[in-house]
Amino acid sequence: MKTTLLFALLFITTISFGQIPKLYIQLVSHNEPADNLQYNLNYSIAKANMLTMAAMVNTYNVKWNVQTSDGFVLGALVDQAATSTNIFKTLANAPYVDNIQIDPRYKNMNGRNIADQWYLLDSLGANPSHSLGGCIYSSTDIANHPLDWEEYRVPIIGNIYGNSWQCDLITGAGSYPPHDNDYNNFGCFKPKSEADFTTHDPSKNLWCIGVGCAPVLTDTTNEQEIIDLILGQVDSIQTGKWPADKFYVMRIMTNQSDYGSAFFTKLQNVLDGLAGVPYSELQWATIGESFAAFQAWQTTSSDFSQWGCGETMTGIIEPEKEEDFTIYPNPSSGVYSFKFADNESHSIVIADISGKIVLEQDINSNQSISIENNQKGMYFVNVDKQDSKILIKE
Known about the structure:
By secondary structure, the chain is of the alpha/beta class. It has 2 domains: 2-307, TIM Barrel (Alpha-Beta Barrel); 325-393, Immunoglobulin-like (Sandwich), CATH 2.60.40. The protein is built from 8 helices and 20 strands. It has helices at 2-17, 40-60, 70-83, 87-91, 114-123, 223-238, 261-274, 287-297, and strands spanning 23-30, 64-68, 100-104, 131-133, 156-157, 164-165, 169-171, 186-189, 207-209, 216-217, 248-255, 282-284, 305-307, 325-328, 335-340, 346-352, 357-363, 367-370, 377-383, 387-393. Strands 1, 2, 3, 10, 11 and 12 form a 6-stranded parallel beta sheet that branches. The chain has a 5-stranded mixed beta sheet with strand order 4-7-9-8-13, covered by helices on one side. Strands 17-16-19-20 form a 4-stranded antiparallel beta sheet, with no helix packed on it. α6 links the parallel β10 and β11. α6 (223-238) runs parallel beside α7 (261-274). It is globular and about 65 Å long. Residues 1-17 and 315-323 have low confidence and may be disordered.
């Protein structure tokens, strides 16, 4: 009976919305001011690595968002003066232009803000976007992790160059771990307020695009886990575990400081592992292209989409949310404590990224569980068959 209901749901939603949705996927990189890429040697090494990355992106027809702080841009200014070219101009022209989007970041030096960063990128021929390259939407530690998106509802005036820059889209930053204050779910919506970020308010002027269950690829990552995670997401969409009336977009995060031979080998393995997925099920797209696809998906201008990372369908009815719960510490070596807002006993199920259940039991608030004997990586925890979150085992 359950299988019949599932296929009935899939049939109905397919008729209603034309077809089963696909998963849009982005490859995203960023650098930090502390990388000191303004210095000649650092810039030269980074430039060579970015060209290697661009060649790989082009070969696999992958879409890549380059989110950059101003150290790399300052290095490019010196390069431009000496050679009449620079890495950003190269990436923004043929043969790379169709596969790469360049985003300014708000993390800059010497008083430069994101409008100043956009101005410098534009002067270098980068054709920079009006997307915020990484944002923190919620924070309990304002001093160390300030909110950095609400101010972008209005035009930003450059502190140094006096130019005006208007943000169109906020997203990210986005990966587990170490981020715990990104919008790590799927979808596109207009955040209502700082206090009520996830409520869609069509009267607002700023869109947020989620990052899905965004993994981070480093030079030491187990790349097979990333392949399995993404294939599992595609399967959840195609088999109706996730509803057909949602818009799904996620990303693979990378740190520019990791780029080198070991990283590129792992990235190639990931791209090879995903190469066989049909275009109708998995499509590479830049952040801008993902948002354009969302706009094409809309039937009215007020439509939006949200879906929880790791959430699943139950029969033909989407699950109602239980009271909030927290898990700590997360990441951990395998021991986690659960705190439930209602202080009642709850049923939990923990599964790996392939869907295999590794633990199932009833627990009370502040009780601990252990998956110490399981492999490192990402796990999904489901509470009362409704509310889901992610565990990271280090």
